[in-house]
Amino acid sequence: MGGALILLSLLAGGCAGKPVKPKPPAVPEAAAPPTTPSATRLREAIGYYLSADYRYGGTTTTALDCSGFVMKTYERAGIKIPRTTELQLQGGMPVPLENLQYGDLLFFNKYCNAKYSYATASIFSGSFPKDEKPSHVGIYIGNGRFIHASSSKGGVTISPLNQDCWMRSLIGIRRYLKE
To answer: What pTM value is reported for the model?
Structure first.
């Protein structure tokens, strides 16, 4: 009986000592659909590249990388933006997460591709310095989702921005749509 009480107290003490995981910032769930002419053109341009495969350095309708997808999509919508993620992040207008709109560009670092495991990274995320160099870019399409050319998914795909890995690797947002 005494052993059971000791075991129970040890188990209860272990639960009380768990660190609380910080909650990531909230992603706007509902965004107005594109209503401006440039946002509508961007939406149509996105549709043009939906079946494209991923190819590093690619900028064709059949195969492209993340920054190539963003550049070509914007170009097709009549908006010229730089080719690389680094230059795309340097341009445009900075936007806070709470003001995301359709068409905003989302920039990510290599957090999800780091050498340490995803579990370790989630538990100790405050212990690792945040790399501010962009390695990936996508286009926000509303309702907490973005579209991007993904090497791991093999092409253009839609992902939820509120996924832990994406939120922890988000390093910047830029707006290129003026209207």
So the answer is: 0.76
Residues of the chain with pLDDT below 50 are 5-24, 30, 115-118
Handedness of CA 92, 95, 97, 102 (dihedral sign): negative
Check if 15 is active-site: no
Annotated active-site residue 165? The verdict is no
Which residues fall within 8 angstroms of residue 119, CB to CB, at 6 or more apart? none
Active site residue 148: yes
pLDDT of residue 172: 97
Domains and CATH numbers, the chain: 28-175 (3.90.1720.10)
- For the record, the structure tokens of 16 come out as 């009380």
Annotated catalytic residue within 15, 112, 136, 165: 136
